[in-house]
Specification:
The protein has 697 residues and is an alpha/beta fold. It folds into 3 domains: 5-260, Alpha-Beta Complex (2-enoyl-CoA Hydratase, Chain A, domain 1), CATH 3.90.226; 289-465, Rossmann fold; 473-692, N-(1-d-carboxylethyl)-l-norvaline Dehydrogenase, domain 2 (Orthogonal Bundle). 50% of the residues lie in helices and 11% in strands. The protein is built from 30 helices and 16 strands. Helix 1 (28-42) packs parallel to helix 2 (77-85) and helix 12 packs across helix 13. It starts with a strand and ends with a helix. The structure holds (S)-3-Hydroxyhexanoyl-CoA.
């Protein structure tokens, strides 16, 4: 293993070059080496200044997140940074790429900060359920004041070099090579007799008593479900009211409290789960151009994602008016991103120019990748793939965006099934980060690797799944939706169900989601599903609403009514009447259903279904399921996903509840899968089971 850092000399300036791939995270090895280097250089009389620089694309991406599951090993980061700040000669941070979390805290412990234009500096700890625990909450306000500190730390969003310079976090901008620029500046500092400039020697800026109370009051209600945002404000308040050392100790205590919380454990788990198995880079084919078939909402969203990531896109639709509408949507959405400041006007213009329209499929003969997003009908898709199989160049990868149809049946029609797989985007495709990459029976390694690589390139999270009705996400959604539909018949209401699940943390309750997606869409999909449960109660309420033309938001009526000027959802007594009538017709007795039952039935049904598709090999791991649910279905990230949540509750407790529902409801839906039952019996977890499989146990 290579040394995690090197010391280079440039005359009287010593450069500490951190070299700990992939992102210079401050793992124990690197901390130990850095401490030794600092002590050596500080006592070396031939060294007059030190530059701290990161090899590769980043300065430092933060503490090593994988170490937070074990007790911290000395030297602790805050001790190391205290020593760094104590250096008796000027220390210059040469910042580029990511300087995040512990990386930004390291920059604050340096005496001077220089940066290049690609800098992203910030405190994303809150997204991991943590707070900056290595002095950031104490040093940052001394440099940039309270408001900027509160914003950066409770918001978690990194800032660029312009903003960092404007607030005083960066002292000097460097054009070109950051190392050379920082060394030149260090020389200037020495020549000018500059002394170490330690933030800890500055007093904390004045803060009024109301400042922190007002910030707390203004935090969104959702922030209060998590420990971290409130603790960040506590730590900053401690910096305003206590001396440096005591404030540092308090921050450390609060950090530990957050680190041990189930919310932070869940968020850290997702951090790694979302990065998933490494990309199969060797097998991936080069993709520079793509065709998207179908210029509807989905096709346009996919085209936007591809074009903004730099791919040349041909959007094909046989109907000229649909094509024109799709192209207009692409342009207006991308231009809207520029107006909102998410990209520059020049980048937006270039992205729009990368998309061209065509009515002729033959124009896709030379593209590297085709993504079909045509009407959800097997015959239509098979027809298209038969043509694509003929006309596309050899080695082009052909993907279908079907959400419910059989990928193998579509692949077979192409005559080159090895080149075909599913690429299931979620709507709106330019916003939602999840893509299920559906492995067909004959999909080649190159096809799957290419789709994974493209998904990563367009900034999305790709999870490879098996081919079955609904794949992983929608297949599990049926179990979740089934329970909420049954509970409607049993006496609950759309708003009670949505409220209980939103309180649990779901981004939106299932009835509101149905109204948003369109109840006609689900209705059509269920009609084409041959193996739907033979149960007249199954999605009975949704079906009746769709049959009555109550499609949801688009028709102004669904589970709710949307007729106010703000189109906000309102309970609708007509729906309650309809549900009562349906329950009566089916002989279902109505009763009051507690919020706890609503949550348990919906969420445990998900976990059981997840266990089933793990047994069947449709999902490769519980982590894949959790990533899909947190990124495609609004499952609360701080609960880690349905499988992690079940592990956290304890599988024995989950099973006990399921047996109770089995007793009350019958075995049809509540019999635990063998995997879940056996894990619960031996006090196991899904995570442990997965680790055992990975170790070949
Ligand atoms: C913290 O600092 C707490 C302190 O305040 C207090 C301490 C006491 N640790 O994302 P990528 C791995 S909390 C461990 O695909 P990109 C990642 O798993 C930390 N590993 O690359 C992946 O591994 P693999 C605060 C890390 O170019 C590989 O690096 N910091 C860490 O798309 C490449 O990652 C953050 O929250 C880490 N800190 O994006 C920043 N970071 O190859 C977290 C990355 O095996 N990191 N890895 O799959 C990021 O935001 C992005 O990784 C970054 C690069 C923007 C840096």
């Amino acid at each position: 293993m290579n040394a995690p850092l090197a010391i280079e000399r440039d005359g009287s300036v010593a450069v500490i070059m951190l070299d700990h791939p992939p992102v210079n995270a401050l793992a124990h090895r690197l901390r130990t080496a850095l401490l030794t280097a600092i002590e050596r250089l500080d006592s070396d009389p031939t060294v007059q200044a030190i530059v701290l620089h990161g090899a590769g694309r980043n300065f430092i991406a933060g503490a090593d997140i994988s170490e937070f599951d074990q007790p911290a090993q000395p030297p602790l980061l805050n001790e190391l940074l205290f020593r760094l700040e104590s250096c008796n000669k000027p220390v210059v941070a040469a910042l580029h790429g990511a300087a995040l979390g512990g990386g930004a805290e390291t920059a604050l412990a340096c005496h001077y900060r220089a940066a290049t234009s690609d800098l992203k500096i910030g405190f994303p700890e809150v997204t991991l359920g943590l707070l900056p625990g290595a002095g950031g909450t104490v040093r940052l306000p001394r440099l940039v004041g309270w408001k900027a500190s509160l914003e950066l730390m409770t918001g978690g969003k990194p800032i660029d070099v312009d903003r960092a310079t404007a607030i005083g976090l960066v002292d000097r901008r460097i054009d070109g090579d950051v190392r050379a620029g920082a060394v030149a500046w260090a020389r200037e500092l020495v020549a000018g007799g500059a002394l170490p400039r330690r933030l800890r020697d500055l007093g904390a800026p004045e803060a009024t008593a109301e400042l922190f109370a007002e910030w707390r009051a203004a935090m969104p209600a959702t922030a209060w479900r998590l420990p971290a945002p409130g603790r960040i404000v506590d730590a900053l308040e401690a910096s305003a009211t206590r001396p440096f050392d005591q404030a540092l100790d308090r921050a450390r205590e609060l950090f530990e409290e957050c680190r041990r919380s189930s919310e932070s454990r869940a968020l850290r788990y997702l951090f790694f789960a979302e990065r998933g198995s490494s990309l199969d880079r060797d097998a991936a084919l080069r993709v520079e151009s793509a065709g998207v078939i179908g210029a509807g909402t989905m096709g346009a969203g996919i085209a936007i994602s591809l074009a903004t990531a730099g791919l040349a896109v041909t959007l094909v639709d046989s109907k000229p008016e649909s094509l024109a509408a799709g192209l207009a949507r692409v342009a207006s959405t991308i231009e809207g991103s520029a107006r909102k400041g998410r990209m520059t006007v020049a980048d937006a213009a270039a992205a729009v120019a990368r998309v061209r329209g065509s009515g002729d499929l033959k124009e896709l003969s030379a593209v590297d990748l085709v993504i079909e997003a045509a009407f959800e009908n097997l015959a239509v898709k098979r027809g298209l793939f038969a043509e694509l199989g003929e006309l596309c160049k050899p080695q082009a990868v052909l993907a279908t965006n079907t959400s419910t149809l059989d990928v193998d049946a579509i692949a077979a029609a192409s005559g080159r099934a090895a080149d075909v797989a599913g690429m299931h985007f979620f709507s709106p495709a330019n916003i939602m980060r999840l893509v299920e990459i559906v492995r067909g029976r004959e999909s080649s390694r190159a096809t799957l690797a290419t789709l994974r690589a493209v998904t990563k390139r367009i900034g999305k999270i790709g999870v490879t799944v098996g081919n079955c009705y609904g794949f992983v996400g929608n297949c599990m959604l049926y179990a979740y939706g089934r329970e909420k539909e049954l509970m409607l018949l049993e006496g609950s209401t759309p708003e009670a169900i949505d409220r209980a699940l939103e309180e649990f943390g779901m981004a939106m309750g299932p009835n509101a989601v149905g109204d948003l997606a369109g109840l006609d869409i689900g209705y059509q999909a269920r009609r084409q599903w041959n193996e739907r449960p033979d149960d007249p109660r199954f999605y009975r309420v949704s079906d009746r609403l769709a049959e009555l033309g109550r499609y949801g938001q688009k028709s102004g009526r669904g589970f709710y009514r949307y007729d106010g000027s703000d189109r906000k959802r309102q309970p609708d007594p007509e729906v309650l009447e309809l549900i009562r009538a349906e329950a009566k017709a089916l002989g279902v007795a109505q009763r009051k259903i507690a919020d706890s039952e609503i949550v348990e039935r919906c969420i445990y049904a998900l976990a059981n279904e997840g266990a089933r598709i793990l047994e069947e090999g449709i999902a490769a791991s519980p982590a894949d399921i959790d990533v899909i649910w947190c990124n495609g279905y609004g499952f609360p990230r701080h609960r880690g996903g349905p499988m992690f949540h079940a592990d956290t509750i304890g599988l024995a407790i989950v099973i006990e509840a399921m047996r109770r529902y089995e007793g009350e409801q019958g075995p049809q839906y509540w019999t635990p899968t063998p995997l879940l039952a056996s894990l619960a019996e031996r006090e196991g977890t899904f995570a442990g089971w997965q680790a055992g499989r990975a170790d070949g146990v």
